[in-house]
Amino acid sequence: MLSHLNAPQREAVKYLDGPCLVLAGAGSGKTRVITQKIAYMVQECGLEARNIAAITFTNKAAREMQERVGKLLDSRSARQLTVCTFHALGVRIVRQEARLVGLKPQFSILDTSDLQQILAELSGNADKNLIRGLQWTISGWKNALIRPEEAVKLVNDEISHAAAKIYPAYEKTLRAYQGVDFDDLIALPVRLFDTEPEALERWRIRLRYLLVDEYQDTNKAQYKLLRQLAGQRGAFTAVGDDDQAIYAWRGADVENLHLLQKDYPQLRVIKLEQNYRSSNRILSAANTLIANNEKLFEKKLWSEHGLGEPIQISMARDPDHEAELVAMKLTAHKFEFKTHFRDYAILYRGNHQARVIEQQLRNHHIPYVMSGGQSFFDRAEIRDLLSYLRLMANEDDDLAFIRAITTPRRGVGAATLEALGTYAGRRHASLFATVFEEGVSEHIAARQLESVRKFGDYIRQLSHRAHQESAGVLLEELLRAIGYQAWLMESCEVKEAETKWRNVRDFVDWLSRKGEQDQKTLHELVQTIALINMLDKGNEDEADAVQLATLHASKGLEWPYVYLIGVEEGMLPHQSSIDGDTIEEERRLMYVGVTRAQRGLTITACETRRVAGERKMVDPSRFIDEMGDGLRRTGKDAAPVSQEEGRAKLANLRAMLSAKPAK
Ligand code: ATP
Ligand code: MG
């Protein structure tokens, strides 16, 4: 079974006597070490799969790893294995230890817009930039395990001053709603394990061995959680690549690589040097590029794959032209090499770049899936329904209460809600609980109160049934009962309403499928959705389609042919990192992008782009020059410029061919 591995990979798989770190460049088989090690531990060493946890960076990566390991293990073991993200592991811990953490097991995971609403209320300011700044700052503190009383001492500018001021109230509000934010999913378990040794022992027995992929992107809180669970024995294997650290902006800390060596002096460090992914041209361009960064650890990478195709560089006039160029090149390439759509990925720095690409792919009838974009679960219509589901699970979730009771409108106006809110606030109770209190009738008119109570009764009834009945069936019934489709028709234009309704149907299907597949209760499902929301807003479709993804979302994945678009100064490296002098992180991002490609890499850049509404000339990215030789440049004139011109050229060609030869 270890025959599919090279010598250092085998060493990493077989080493179980202490903590192990595999430090190696892209495509060298780090993730393969993790999957093989799991199989090895179960099959050769007699470890129970339920005692092993593999931590991946995204849900998509978790799904893929589960699939790969599933092929190596028997089905029972595969089911018992834990493969998930740090956050998903956090949810499990918080759910199981809820009482010790001070929550109900059905706590709500609040999403970004819920949190922004809370922050706006607490700060008494609705300015979007300010709110985002506050959220960012508080999240940063939580990822670094800094509590409100400590944050006060770290204040150094206006935003952090404002953030420190509302941080305690923010925490209180979340708890009052029986809610947590994403950062709590790590911070709460860490705090719990700090203070409750018995709980920690329970989890150490449960998870005897941990494997962590993409270790370079863990933040301080995640590292602490790993250390707590792994204990002094250091029963873990971490794999990572410092050259692919691209989450510093979210609190990830490459220092954790050094810390590991400091905290575990017995750490076995294994390096891998053979790349199995890319052709040598791609690999050498990636190596040359990343050599421009200050080195943390020396690494070499070589590949047995041949030299391969030269990397193509294409210049476009502007983003529309660029998108068209990519769509046409892709179509031509697919035709010539008889490939599948799923062999291609189009990668970009920022989400906003996807829109033009999507447009062109649709024009060319090229199927695609997208990850890293606006989540399906973020759409208004889905959030409407989720608010009902959240409320069914957690009556204390005031945000869900307000959204559900006002969608669709049931004669409960702002004045009623305000009166209810004031009364609830005085009694320190949730809105939902207040609805059924005697005293509330003095503050709310009888007719309104009747509507509100009817709503409350209905939710309780559904919530009760959620213990036995399937999530899909309940949701189906809920839609009928609240007349959601009719309400969509009333409140939006026909086309929009139809799209929304289609999304709702997709959601019902998804929930039914998921409920059956994973044997999860509605409450557990709702928590899973909040997690999907957070990171990889991936499409689970397995269809034959081109993948669109942000560079961040592409981490750990690979495709035969990759198009990297918008490789310009100001885009990649991003303007903010040019200003803020964080070019090295951008270079790593470029390195991640380049190393996703197996056989073919095309880089495109625009000559002009709209910046703040104005058309501006832009330069190709410095990273293109930094990749060295072996790049083939094609000017914008070398490619057909538009469909019309392309067609005109074709018509000319036909005319020439069919013209009678001159005598
Ligand atoms: P990244 O840094 O991008 O996450 P990685 O180091 O995790 O890359 P993998 O994804 O594990 O690399 O492996 C890259 C490719 O090489 C995969 O297609 C994998 O199946 C293949 N591979 C890894 N090790 C071997 C091996 N020993 N023999 C053949 N193929 C291998
Ligand atoms: Mg990997």
Automatic annotation (TrEMBL):
Residues 280-556 form the UvrD-like helicase C-terminal domain. It comes from the Bacteria. It holds the Pfam family UvrD-helicase. The keyword Hydrolase applies. InterPro entries: DExx_box_DNA_helicase_dom_sf, DNA_helicase_UvrD-like_C, DNA_helicase_UvrD/REP, Helicase_Rep, P-loop_NTPase, UvrD-like_ATP-bd. Residues 3-279 form the UvrD-like helicase ATP-binding domain. Belongs to the helicase family. UvrD subfamily. This is ATP-dependent DNA helicase Rep.
